[in-house]
Amino acid sequence: MLLALPLAVAVWTFGGLAARRARNNADQALVRDLNSGASVYVRRLGEARGTADRLARSRRVARAFTQGHERTLRAIEQAHPWILVLQGSAGGLHGRNEQGRVDVIAGRRTIGRVFVVPPFGRPLARDIGDEARLPGGRFGFLLDHRLVREDDVGRVDPPPMVGKATDIRMQGLEYRAVAQPVGERRTALITVRKQSEIAAAAENVRWRVIVIGLGLIGAFLVAAYAVAPAIARTRLSRLQRDQAQRVLARLGDGVFVVDHDGVVQLWNQAAEAITGLRAAEVHGRRAEEAIPGWTTIATFVPVADRPGEVDGTSSAETVPVEVAGRELWLSIVAVALDDDTVYAFRDATHDRRLEDLRSQFVATISHELRTPLASLHGAALTLREHDLPAQTQDDLLEMIAEQSNRLANLVEEILVAGQLDSGSLRVVADTFDPEELVRGVVKVGQSRVGDETTIEVVVPPVVPKAHGDSERTRQVLLNLLDNAIKYSPSGGRIEVGLATAGDRLRFTVQDQGLGIPVGEQERIFDKFYRLDPDQRRGIGGTGLGLYICRELVQSMHGRIWVESEPGRGTTFAFELPAEPVPAPV
What is the distance between the alpha carbons of residues 432 and 579, in angstroms, rounded to a whole number? Predict the structure, then answer.
């Protein structure tokens, strides 16, 4: 009961606001009606001006003016109600609301004029009102203080304000009007409506709102009295439900509920974040329409009667789902709950991709190890079972040394990658001579290439000392140079350079080889990623080299990047902190 009085006051206030809004709507309706009528008027005026221009250029009108055929001119006016034709070069029409004129020229002399004079009157008001589909008597013309409508003509006092709803009086009655001027004289288009009609409609709205509001208050009081015990009983369950919803909203796993009709009843925030599907797009829709890959989920994900009671060793099933053109792997578990099914899932895309990369890495390592092991085995058997010339023995021993070194490099890459992942790799912070390091790396590289490949060193006259680990920097540079050699199967020029870039020293390795596609350039530094995974070009590798380079450079507070154009070569560059170059004395 304490709420009844303020609610009644609020209903009374809302009734007054509704009545005021009804009056505002009436004003807006007058403005819309005026715009509709004005559009018809402007169109007809444009047509009349076109007619005037056409008549002024016609031979018939010129001949009638020249020969003084008054009957012809009056016949033209009767055929075109908006047109007036006058002979001679007189000025405008006195007392007539002319909306345009066109001179009729014969030779270089004006022999007459064609005027556009709208026939402001009851017939035109009726025609415009009918074409604009306005209520009868709503549209008219204001000629000075005289209002012309299709059903009457009367004096208006006071004249309405232009472009704004105004109260006027005509023949003892009050009207609401909106006017829009036309032409140069005191003429305007106008729409009117009786004040009594507007007031009656507003009062009707006001009382309707009051009666409905009071009725709702009464119904609310009766219902509140009837359901008060039920409200008290359900309050605790509502608090529990709200708490459960808050917990679901903050879960890291996606959760959604599908009822027995296949309609999604819940879609939490984690589900939105993982899939990119908003709750508003999914909730209340059938799962097969709203959730991509629902057929796969419903087919392969078992539904348990209780959590953990699913046949098999694991209750979760990982299934692929394509959302907005991207593939997601979701690890999903489902549990039956009354008539609904609760699904919980997490994003296993990264784990799946990592597993695929690991499988590919194992296959790659197997292939990379098989070749040198086969060579070592064959060379050892040959040396043991055959009496070979000294030169052949030297060649086989050199091959054994080369393949052994290759195996050692493979093992070193795997060990370094493991140390980087575990954070146990030590990097020494010291200064070293970068030019000496570069020339040593190039010397090693020159021993690995044939005559078709040249390796050149480009360094500035003054090179500052670099800050970092010289051995790790050598490892990075050797890896980049080895890549340049491998991906230049046709040979060419390889340039290893140094340059200063502010307070940093830049190392570059540039080749003229195969190049790297634009779409692959961001991925080549990823772990296990290989540009030629199927070895179609016969280029081997573990997919760890550039990953190790990136991690080593970053551990020395540097950065590494690549610039490449397919078929035109590649440039790898990395920068390390450098000592300032002393100014010349």
Answer: 10
pLDDT at res. 424: 77
Residue 211 lies in a domain: no
- 572: its two tokens: 């790898």
pLDDT > 90? residue 133: yes
Shared domain check, 97 and 155: yes
State both tokens at 89: 């070069």
Please check whether residues 278 and 400 belong to one and the same domain: no
Cα torsion through 76, 82, 86, 90, rounded to 10: -160
Are 259 and 163 in a shared domain?
no
Strands of the 101-106 sheet, one edge to the other? 83-87, 109-116, 101-106
Please give the Cα distance from 167 to 156 (Å, whole number).
Answer: 10
Rounded distance between C-alpha atoms, residue 424 and residue 66, angstroms: 110
Shared domain for 99 and 78, answered yes or no, is yes
Q: Token pair for residue 84?
A: 């007036």
CA distance 68 to 91: 19
The top-scoring range by mean pLDDT among 158-167, 318-327, 401-410 is 158-167
On whether both 453 and 527 belong to a single domain, the answer is yes
DSSP, residue by residue, 490-555? T-EEEEEEEEEETTEEEEEEE--SS---GGGTTTTTSTT--SSTT-TT-----S-HHHHHHHHHHH
Domain count, the chain: 4
38 lies in the same domain as 159: yes
Give the per-residue SS3 of 436-497. Answer: HHHHHHHHHHHCCCCCCEEEEEECCCCCCCEEECHHHHHHHHHHHHHHHHHCCCCCEEEEEE
The domain of 318 spans: 251-347
Q: Which residues contact 17 (CB under 8 A, 6 or more apart)?
A: none
State the residue for tokens 């390091």.
437
Contact 55, 31 (CB under 8 A): no
Mean pLDDT, to the nearest integer, of 456-479? 93
Amino acid at 373: L
8 Å CB contact between 509 and 481: yes
- Which backbone phi and psi does 232 adopt, to 5 degrees? -65, -40
Contact between 292 and 323 under an 8 Å Cβ cutoff? The reply is: yes
Token reading at 69: 């055929």
Which CATH number does the domain housing residue 515 bear?
A: 3.30.565.10
* 492 in the same domain as 396: no
